[in-house]
Amino acid sequence: MTYTALNPTGSALQPSPGDRVAVAATRLYDAEIALHIARQTRVDAWVAAAYDRLHAAIGEHRAALAAAATAVEIRPVHQRLAS
Questions:
Q1: How far apart (Å, rounded) are the C-alpha atoms in residues 57 and 69?
Q2: Measuring CA to CA, how many Å separate 21 from each of 27, 31, 52, 58, 75?
């Protein structure tokens, strides 16, 4: 993982929860596009593979969202702005 706006102080070895969500969202989008293209080809094997990829991407995205939700520290807004 490289430096991103979501993780300006993070290391390449430990991506932030926001980075994980962003990567998972990109993979989800790519899988949706791949399925759309595969359906237009009407090649059953390609459509099946694209559905499998989309299913995996949905699971990855949901897991990333859940991990990000548990990693968020809940503090009042004025405390978050002060830090």
A1: 18
A2: 10, 15, 20, 11, 21
pLDDT digits over 2-60, tens only? 445 555 555 557 788 889 999 999 999 999 999 999 999 999 999 999 999 999 999 99
pTM of the model: 0.68
Cβ within 8 Å of residue 20, ≥6 positions away: 64, 67, 68
Single-letter code of the amino acid located at 1: M
Contact 57, 24 (CB under 8 A): yes
What pLDDT does 49 receive?
97
